[in-house]
UniProtKB/TrEMBL annotation:
Species classification: Bacteria, Pseudomonadati, Pseudomonadota, Alphaproteobacteria, Sphingomonadales
Name under which the protein is recorded: ABC-type transport auxiliary lipoprotein component domain-containing protein
Pfam families associated with the record: ABC_trans_aux
Location of the ABC-type transport auxiliary lipoprotein component domain: 41-192
Keywords carried by this UniProt record: Signal
Classification via SUPFAM superfamilies: XCC0632-like
Signal peptide positions on this chain: 1-25
Length: 197
């Protein structure tokens, strides 16, 4: 058999396998995100020279939240994930952005990045996003945030746990997004009010 015939025959042999090869999971039809219930006016000027400023860090998370999938607590020791539900980006980043918007809207604080804050005296908000998913037994969306706030000029750090639970009609992709968005906004509002006092 000549060399010129070997290549086409090899390609023909591989063709039936091409339908079986996948280079990653098929993404869902839609991706979930968070939207703040506290709207920020477009074009509003903020200045850290005339208003208090704060740095809001992206929260740390347990491994179950270090993904774009939505966890479901199925028992005290078991976690599954909601079928066809996926975040547009990791939930810790979405939540940090929501906290920033809510804090600015409710307190008037200027939210700065770590780089912008190098020369500023400002508050620092960090923490751990402990829960950001569904509780299957209770049929609830649960958001739990352990916050750590260091106020400018203070000698210590304040810590506080915030949590919100919102009922879900079903453990599915359609019910997950709105319920978690509502719970996340409730927690962000509580945190902003605490920061602003």
């Amino acid at each position: 058999m000549t060399r010129s015939l070997l290549l086409p025959m090899a390609l023909i042999a591989v063709l039936p396998l091409s339908g079986c090869i996948s280079f990653g999971a098929t993404p869902p039809d839609t991706l979930l995100t968070l939207n703040s219930t506290a709207a920020l006016p477009v074009g509003q000027m903020q200045n850290s020279a005339t208003a208090k400023s704060i740095v809001i860090a992206v929260p740390v998370t347990p491994q179950s939240l270090a993904t774009t999938r939505v966890p479901v607590q199925t028992s005290t020791t078991s976690i599954a994930y909601v079928k066809d539900a996926q975040w547009a980006e990791p939930p810790a980043r979405l939540f940090a952005r929501l906290l920033s918007d809510m804090t600015t809207a409710r307190t008037g604080r200027v939210v700065l990045s770590q780089v912008q804050a190098v020369t500023e005296a400002n508050d620092q908000l960090a923490g751990e996003l402990r829960n950001f998913g569904l509780d299957a037994d209770a049929r609830m969306a649960v958001v739990t945030f352990d916050a750590a706030l260091t106020r400018s000029g203070a000698t210590g750090t304040e810590k506080r746990r915030f949590e919100a639970r919102v009922p879900v009609s079903a453990i599915d992709a359609a019910s997950t997004g709105p319920a978690l968005n509502q719970a996340a906004n409730q927690v962000a509002q509580q945190v902003a009010d605490w920061v602003g006092r």
